Prior knowledge:
- By secondary structure, this protein is an all-beta fold.
- The chain has strands spanning 2-10, 18-20, 29-34, 42-44, 63-68, 72-84, 87-93, 100-103, 111-113, 121-122.
- It contains no helices and ten strands.
- The model is unreliable at 12-26 (pLDDT under 50).
Amino acid sequence: MCVSCARARRSPGATTPWVSDAGGDVSTKSFDVDLDSGRPDTAPKSGQRDFPYKVSESDPEVFYVTAHAQAHDVSWYLELDWSSGDRHGTVRINDNGKPFRTSGNVGRPAYDYPLGGSEWLKAPTD
């Protein structure tokens, strides 16, 4: 899986970042993406192995990707290469045809909508 940036610029000072947990109570493989990196890429979290993974209809995998930025406002998407026998391709993972957007929040508040929550909560500061 690779990360492609459609646009990256210095983070604007007037926006408020939001965080939302998506998905259900399922076992996942977790990956981190540092969008401030010169060439962002997925990195396995918690000692998990990196790609490739073998999947099937009866043995699926769920990939949970956490992307973050501190200093930039980044529009980005994921590309997942796949193969099945002699067939292969690339699936673009995005926000309904548009790139995801992640903005840094240095010096600004952030908000979180926890999985199973009913409202946005101010996120703790590091």
